[in-house]
Amino acid sequence: MTLHRSLVFFFLFLSCFSLSSWALPLCSDSRAPSEVNSTLSFCPYKGKTCCNTMEDSNLMKQFQAMNISDKGCSSVVKSILCAKCDPFSSDLFRDNSDQQSVPILCNSTSSANSTKDFCSETWETCQNVSISGSLFAASLQGRAGAPANNNASKLADLWQSKTDFCSAFGGASSNETVCFSGEPVALNDKDTTPDKAPSGLCLEKIGNGSYLNMVPHPDGSNRAFFSTQPGVVFLAGIPDQDSGGVLDVDPSSPFVDLTDEIHFDTEFGMMGMAFHPKFAQNGRFFASFNCDKSKWPGCTGRCSCNSDVNCDPSKLTPDSGSQPCQFQTVIAEYTANGTSSDPSKAKNAKPTEVRRIFTMGLPFTSHHAGQILFGPDGYLYFMMGDGGGGADPYNFSQNKKSLLGKIMRLDVDNIPSASEISKMGLWGNYSIPKDNPFREDKELEPEIWAVGLRNPWRCSFDSSRPSYFMCADVGQDTYEEVDLITKGGNYGWRVYEGPDLFHPDSSPGGNTSVKSLNPIFPVMGYNHSEVDSSGKSASITGGYFYRSETDPCIAGMYVYADLYGNGVWAGIETPANSGNFVTNRTTFSCAGDSPMKCSDSPGTSGLSLGYVFSFGEDNNKDIYLLTSNGVYRVVRPSRCNLTCSKENSTAARRKPSPSSSPSSSSSCYKHINGFHGSLVVLFVSLSLILLGLLN
What pLDDT digit, counting tens, does each position of 319-351 carry? Predict the structure, then answer.
């Protein structure tokens, strides 16, 4: 086992989910807390905190200007001011309003547990004490009427009673929220014993197709979309667990065929697809793919190697016989509305673009990633590699003006006019979410959410705890990593490869100083030597947190694999909600009653997955492995004679129907904002050996 320490925790609107089960440190500006070497001078925080020394100094000046003469009140107000530095300040100041200067104060009248009544203590200690520039002079979030006298300095003059005061500033600490008790929030200090490593994964084969993407139908039914690298999308019915069924897919009737627009080769093709959260109502869906501008006039984007990033495309060496930016990465929007009055019932769509969301020329022919997915906030996340060329020679990943080696976050619901797009210098038809990190880091391009990635190959939001945004990032020479993505996070490449410093052979684009970084290191990963004695053949494929009821012995674990099928890992978070993971390499085998014969590993009786291109998750939260040898699904351990004391093989499992409501977490999100040709399959399987993510 190897233990990796997380430094990051992604933002999300915590009120929609059970905090006690997954609360994570997060600052009020949606960034991860940073590490400080010693206790701050004014506020009593050390280790991970949401304040740097300058912010700590500013809080001290603000406190001194209040000129509080009473020692008891002075202590209370100082603790309230310093709550901005608390690693859980995002939840303490959960309205994220510029006007919210006071954290949610623990109030016994609104809490069913034994939390300290700090709101009453604040009132009783400070009600008759003068406070210049009082924090309490404005009502918060409309939770109480206006204070009696906005110009007064005493609580008793500002508020008519303790009841009014605590109605405005008080709140409960419960399963869904935390409140401020006058001391740093202390969570995640129990449950230090990790779950037992799984005895193995039991798989069944339910399809022969070779796919790169799987997306469950947004209507919550037991259907999913599968796409191939050449650009064909199928809508398949998924069989129930233990039914003995296989994928219900008609190879002669795809949902949509985009092959006319897509350039398909060993390094290129359709890399991602995403369906709008409201697809059942609006029919909108999106494809991410590559095109060749020498063959298609619609392939016309700006080159990512340009003067803004100190790159001259004329000086780039042609790669594999192609010119710089000959190949482009594209996100295009399509609709199912033209084929059905009810998009959720549509069985096919027209391959005509509704809108070009994004187009950008690629400097080289590898490392362009390309996955897209909608986050729980309703925005579109776009994973982009460093552009290739071998060890990112132009240091695009660390260049804040380059979109290469980044995760982007785009708003595709609010499209600016053509003149606005041109004025803002956007790469297509999208707008910028107002809380993207460029608001705090003026050097960043506005599209950027996170930097320092090499080639992120498969990312996912945890369906039970969407603050966990996991991305696998393919390594260069020695290490494959899994990162926990946070707003504005820098994941180190090309200064670091995984946890270790990286030394490129050449750097025509310059280097980034180690001292200038505050890198976020991987939470999981593996060395190349663990899967290949030569240390060369390794490439990570990111997966999912397992949230199905089918195999309770891997419940809550993050499952990922190596592309070559040499290993599957289960990451166990320990202590719970800490961001620290213990990883266990686990075996995998084929169920004896698999509805389709599994592929055997040559010379052995074991299961051969071939190449593990991707993972998928359906609306039941069952996990799938999309491989060159077919589609595999995780099933009950007992079907492979694996021991799992938690398994109840007779438990009935609820299956969502096409008319059923989405999961509770999906509802929360709304509030927050087959076989398809043996020759193609064989060609995809062989060609992807050299896929850009490997190099």
Answer: 888 999 999 999 999 999 877 789 999 999 999
Q: What is the DSSP letter of 145?
A: P
> 105-106 and 170-171: which strand pairing?
parallel
Angle at the Cα of 274 (from 560 to 252), degrees rounded to 5? 95
**Count of other CB atoms within 10 angstroms of residue 299:** 19
Phi, psi of 124, rounded to the nearest 5 degrees: -70, -30
In this structure, what are the phi and psi dihedrals at residue 330, rounded to the nearest 5 degrees?
Answer: -135, 140
Gap between the Cα atoms of 229 and 681, Å rounded: 10
Q: How far apart are CA 241 and CA 636, in angstroms?
A: 9
Tokens representing 236 are: 């398949």
Q: Write out 37-99 in H/E/C secondary structure.
A: CCCCCCCCCCEEECCCHHHHHHHHHHHHHHCCCCHHHHHHHHHHHHHHHCCCHHHHCCCCCCC
Bridge partners (DSSP) listed for residue 571 = 558, 583
Give the Cα separation of 650 and 305 in Å (integer): 58
**CA-CA distances (angstroms) from residue 673 to 13, 109, 527, 603?**
10, 31, 40, 53
- Tell me which DSSP letter residue 315 carries: G
Respond yes or no on whether the N-terminal peptide bond of residue 494 is cis (omega within 30° of 0).
Answer: yes
Q: For residue range 235-255, list pLDDT tens digits in order.
A: 999 999 999 999 999 999 999
CA 247 to CA 3: how far, in whole Å? 38
d(C-alpha 114, C-alpha 515), whole Å: 46
Residue type at position 645: S
- List the Cα angle 413/419/424 in 5-degree steps: 75
- Is the Cβ–Cβ distance between 545 and 468 less than 8 Å? yes
What pTM was estimated for this model as a whole? 0.82
pLDDT digits (tens, 9 = 90+) for 525-581: 999 999 987 766 799 999 999 999 999 999 999 999 999 998 999 999 988 777 889
pLDDT in tens, 577-613: 778 899 999 999 999 999 999 988 776 667 999 999 9
Sheet holding 588-590, edge to edge: 588-590, 201-207, 630-634, 623-627, 612-617
